[in-house]
Amino acid sequence: MWKMDDLGKFLLPLRQAVLLKRTWIVGLQREQLGLSSSDDEEEDGRSASGSMSDKEYTDEEGSGNESGPSNLDENYAKEIMDDGDEESAEDYPEDCSDEDDIETSSSFDSHLARSLMKEEVDNLKDPKWKYKWEMPENNIILSKWTGTGEPISKEPGKEMDASLKEKIHKNWKNINKASASSATNSSRENFFFSLFNTYRDIMHCNKKPFYVKGGEEDSIIMDAYLLHILNHIYRTRELVIKNDTKLNKLQGGTKEVLGSDAYLDQGFTRPKVLFLLPLRSIALRVVLRLIQLTPLTNKDNVEHLDRFTEEFGGINDEEHNKKDLSSQGRSKPADFRTLFGGNNNDHFVLGIKFTKRTMKLYSDFYSSDIIVASPLGLVTKIGETEFDKEKDVDYLSSIEIVVIDHADVIVMQNWTHVNTVFDHLNLTPSKQHGTDIMRIRPWYLDGQARFYRQTILLGSYLNPDINALFNRFCVNYEGKAKLVSEYKGVLPKILLQVQQIYERFNPSSIIDADDARLDYFCKKVFPKIKDSIEGGIMIFISSYFEFVRIRNFLKSQNASFCLLGEYTKQSDISRARVWFFEGKRKIMLYTERAHFYHRYKIRGIQNLIIYSLPERKEFYPEVINMLDASRNMMCNVLFSCFDLLKLERIVGTAAAKRMLSSDKDMFVFS
């Protein structure tokens, strides 16, 4: 008789191993039932007699038992009975009865049940997306939705009424009633829910965030994706429990179990949803709202909530001072105080598990339904596996929905961490982790999980890194939908009468763009400022890579300069600001990330050189408005054709296109 531990030694491909196990169990069951091979020659050898135990869907740790609940020993069974959170069909009569078999198929069912043809898989491996339809976005000026495949509904109607599980929908209605939510908000929530419920990859990068005045729609969008995720989790759990119940009833000899694909309802591991969020304070906001939207009979049934609010809501004195949020920080802009007014730690990973009666925070990753993490937190976990072979991140193998919210804030951290996380999604796990491989969906075994994964990408602006991730990693067979926007620009927000001279340089390719920018600065810009007597020259730089290159160049020229970057020590920052204001240093290098995390008001600026345009459009007028109005002010901006996304947000889409297509290389705004 085959031993399961020996399978890996003989068959490396997991698909073959699973088929072998199914054949082995079929043979064993036939032998136990007294059947010969000729009694059932039409069966394909697939059996679903094993099942993930109820405990695997209710307790802190998975059982690791491959044989299902029927093979539990007495002590283990007693642990389940004592826990008080066991789940079964009897616990969910409204969700798990046989009447569900006649229920109209939901988008959840149709999305996960679809089998891809070989031609479809080949096309998804090297996709060439064609955006075929457009739909105006009435709530955002100069914006429209565009996508692949069939158009989404312009009027989603009552999508939430039809698609949400009854308990989730009822709870959502009660929340709206209690908060006196307007019909407009409900309509917008319904629209975004219907958009997410298509299971397409979604990119919305013109979202006004909650920390900006007028950012109420951010909360509407958050509610929509949280409802979509709750719906996905509850339907997943319902399907598993219902199949567990059916299999328990079929224990005893029926042939239906041996050959049916109806019980293939799981992935390699339990976690199905991944949130990537930049800060603990934002994770706190999302999880607390998730708790509100979860239809728990008693909100006190959230385990470890006090610990969570303390760890994600607290802020220590060191961090408080670091972010300039003390009395000195009260002069900062309102959006800064709101965003950085909480816990700004960007290193966290949290598991969340749902049972019938409770919602468990800090659950073991392998028994969790949702993982809430920062990119840095997950990358740290990934890095640990390289040094400790006992550790792994197989809990990322069966993620079916990824939500990246506030992607623009993550860009200010380190976007490469996001790419690293996506590189580790939906890989074949290194261990079995107690999963019943008789219940794994075929497309997991065929290495196609990434084609079923939905990615929801949300932020306040689009940049090449975000765009590249959406194009490269988002290969959902359902297709894509994204918001495309045009901009009016932010030039009217400049309060000073200062000429802004835009100078275009022309790199031959995107690979040469950084070198071409540095070469233009060294040959065209620096000769004009190197002999400056008065000083007061600020060079504003978007990326740390460019910051290092300019710093090294100025060192080579023995220039008088000081630094204000994201990694500059606080004592050095204070000294640099004084030196610059008093003219002891002629040039200051100032990065966008330093401005993002501190929003300093630099005094003594006479000549502003924007070496690279800021990603965040609001920073452009902020920095220009810091010029000393009592002196002769100057502002020079370098740009190329590869700066279109930044440029159009600042000068407006129409002006940006003219500037890039013009025969002239110099443009003046005042």
Which stretches of 5+ consecutive residues score pLDDT under 50?
A: 1-12, 24-30, 35-103, 323-327
What is the number of E strands? 18
SSE class: alpha/beta
Rg of Cα set: 29 Å
Sheet with the most strands?
11 strands, mixed
Domain UTP25 C-terminal: 492-669
InterPro entries: P-loop_NTPase, UTP25, UTP25_C, UTP25_NTPase-like
Organism: Rhynchospora pubera
Biased composition (Polar residues): 64-73
Q: What report would you give on this structure?
A:
Helices cover 41% and strands 12% of the residues. With 670 residues, the protein is of the alpha/beta class. The strands form two sheets. An eleven-stranded mixed β-sheet has the order 1-2-11-3-10-9-4-8-6-7-5. It has a seven-stranded mixed β-sheet with strand order 14-15-13-16-17-12-18, with helices on both faces. Helix 10 (216-250) packs across helix 12 (280-293) and helix 12 packs antiparallel against helix 13. The chain is elongated and about 90 Å long. Residues 1-12, 24-30, 35-103 and 323-327 have low confidence and may be disordered. Pfam families: Utp25_C, UTP25_NTPase-like.
